[in-house]
Amino acid sequence: MKRYGSIAALLCAGLLSSCGKDAIQTLENAPLAASRIRFFHFGVNAPGVNFYANETKMTAITSGTGTEATTGINYGGVGAGGAYEAIDPGQYTLTGRIAAATNKDLPISTVTTTIADGKYYSFYMSGFYNTTAKTVDGFVVEDPVAAPTDFTVATIRFVHAMSNANPMTLYAADTVAKTEVAVGGEIAYKAAGAFTDVPAGIYQLSTRYTGSATKVIVKADVSFIGGRVYTVTARGDITVTSTTATNRPFLDVTANR
Fold it and tell me: Residues with Cβ < 8 Å from 110, sequence gap 6 or more?
């Protein structure tokens, strides 16, 4: 018993510097904020960034040495692996800041927005990076994610993050039944559509301009799992015809829940 008492004493000394009657107050944790946000880097040709809410760093990449990497979140990436991060409600200036040593912490994308209590949001860096001004577009959308009630369907919606593409509608074609449905309506740049239920299954996704039967962007063999919620986002450069270029027109599929 004396051995355990000594260990406890050492732990108190190392962690709290004191085991007095007030020491326990230093261990109290504030309740986790009910609001959530996540960060996407879809700014074509923009450097890697760390994302901030006011002066609080929300994302960063750790190197193998344990120090912060200078790569940050690169194009096509999403902070925290696509997970939402807790954030207190209030008004914020959200920024993407250069992670590299050159121009370190320079804000290149800035959006001022209000975070409501208990709601979910996504911040997108989008459009094309201006190498002279060192700026790129950004926008925020609310993610009205609800708990699933029907596990035979998946819920999906479309976000338009391509600055040089016309308003588009997302379509999902079931690869088995061959049934195609529109996922919400026509969506303009920097906007998000309504969440739409589709039967769980494997789909070919495509976007089309209004009044046209031509598929603008195509993504095949996308699995939507029942009870899950997904956001499909158009990103890239609509003028690129290569099927392998990093900045080609692309449909990103990320789970919300």
Answer: 93, 94, 95, 138
* Amino acid letter, residue 182: A
Given CATH 2.60.40.1120, say whether it is the number of domain 148-257.
yes
pLDDT digits (tens, 9 = 90+) for 10-38: 333 443 344 443 443 444 555 678 999 99
**Looking at the domain covering 32-143, what would its CATH class be?**
mainly beta
Residue bearing tokens 């009910």: 34
32-143 and 148-257 in the same fold: yes
Contact between 194 and 184 (Cβ < 8 Å): yes
Whole-model pTM: value is: 0.85
Residue 70 has pLDDT above 60, yes or no: yes
Q: Which residues pair with 93 in a beta bridge?
A: 112
Compute CA distances 256 → 36, 48, 188, 230, 237, whole Å: 11, 23, 21, 5, 25
Indicate the pLDDT class of residue 2, thresholds 50, 70 and 90. very low
Give backbone dihedrals phi and psi of 12, rounded to 5 degrees, phi first.
-60, -40
Q: Are strands 201-209 and 153-160 parallel, antiparallel or unpaired?
A: unpaired
pLDDT digits (tens, 9 = 90+) for 231-250: 999 999 999 999 999 999 99
Among 125, 121, 98, 100, smallest CA distance to 111 is for 125
Measured torsion, CA atoms of residues 189, 174, 81, 165, in degrees rounded to the nearest 10: -20
Domain boundaries, the chain: 1-30, 32-143, 148-257
Average of pLDDT values for 82-97? 96
What is the number of residues in the chain?
Answer: 257
pLDDT band of residue 61 (cuts 50, 70, 90) is confident
